[in-house]
């Protein structure tokens, strides 16, 4: 029979190094299905979803042991999913496999807290805010964050000085944050 642990018991067990095997099995049992379902909805195959979950579980355990996880702030399964989603997005970006807008807008702008329970709403807010930006801001942010162009390259391409390109990029990013209400 599977032992049940509350979120607080999970954290205490991992931090104190007791019942590690039982706690890990419980985490796998209680969170894997949820995470697998959510990442499969985003186009991952079953094997990749399993690998992603295992990586997220390791990060979760490390964060708990290091005291980086606050059990009062977010549920364990939600936190593990947010880690998995963050890893999934980083993998998409690293592999240049942008299957949807989120790979373009999320990780690069670094204004979304993936441990927030409402981070999917933040994705949508970023997408909508980006579309409201003017062409110049979209071009600068896209070139810098998604095409990994340097500010020097952007300045030359757009006929700006380096300082002007840097200031414009900053203002555009601030405008994006303001429009998305994530600042």
UniProtKB/TrEMBL annotation:
GO terms for biological process: DNA-templated transcription initiation. Keywords: DNA-binding, Sigma factor, Transcription, Transcription regulation. SUPFAM superfamilies: Sigma2 domain of RNA polymerase sigma factors, Sigma3 and sigma4 domains of RNA polymerase sigma factors. Residues 32-98, 129-178 form the RNA polymerase sigma-70 region domain. GO terms for molecular function: DNA binding; sigma factor activity. Pfam families: Sigma70_r2, Sigma70_r4. The keyword Transcription regulation applies. It comes from the Bacteria. NCBIfam families: sigma70-ECF (TIGR02937). Belongs to the sigma-70 factor family. ECF subfamily. This is RNA polymerase sigma factor, sigma-70 family.
